[in-house]
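Q: Here's a chain of 268 amino acids. Please give me its 3D structure as tokens.
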Amino acid sequence: MAPAFVSLRKLPVAALAFLALSFGAWAEDLAIVGTGDGIEMLQAIATAYNAGGAVRVTVPPSIGSGGAVAAVGGERQKLGRVARPLTEAEKGQGLVEVPLTRIPSAFFVHGGVGVTGLTSAQVAAIFAGTTDNWSAVGGPDLKIRVVRREDTDSTLAVLRSSMGGWRDLVLTSRSKTATTTQDAIETVRQTPGAIGFGPFSPALAGDLAVLAIDGNTPRDPAYPSAVTLALIYKAATRDAAAADFLAFATSDHAKRLLEERGGAPLKP
């Protein structure tokens, strides 16, 4: 049975000071390392936690889900963040995952396109280059400008694993490659006829249109492509500070913060 932990937030100030002196690691930052997906979400949770926590939580730049597994599994860090399920081999090393929210892989278009939804097949045809004018999918007579991501991009990996027609899809050479999510957003925003993809966020709204796919919006449970953001820890190295943050990250307060930033409910 896992040891019971008393929330650090409920301890008197004098007791916290004593613990900080007695256990030097608690006085240090607690870094949550790993994937770049959902980093703004976790930074918001960390900010809220730091307002009353005894340990300062940080969310460093991305080292990928694999980096989180290596760091936590190698006992160099106590907590990590991943955007893919743990493998059975990783679970066999003592790693445990705590799912937080789903982050849909959204498709967004320039505001002048006038299209609000596509089917999975239509999206695949557009990114393959076989459909190259918006008039073919109910839009204006306007050339489609495809904005893609690099082959190692995590959102592209999610699309290939979950979106119909994307597993072996060869992306059109008549496209622009964006190196970051923000680059993709700005390129689509500034380019008439453009379409791109990236992790869903309410910040995409405004002069861009986020597409429904197969009749489902990104927050709908039936939306065809999303990644699950989770925290990971190793049972052997989970201490009171890590346990306290895990409890906060799965609280109703944290869930509201995630939803405000585009997080979708976890599937049952």
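Q: Can you summarize the key feature?
A: Residues 8-102+227-260 form a domain with the D-Maltodextrin-Binding Protein; domain 2 fold (CATH 3.40.190.10).
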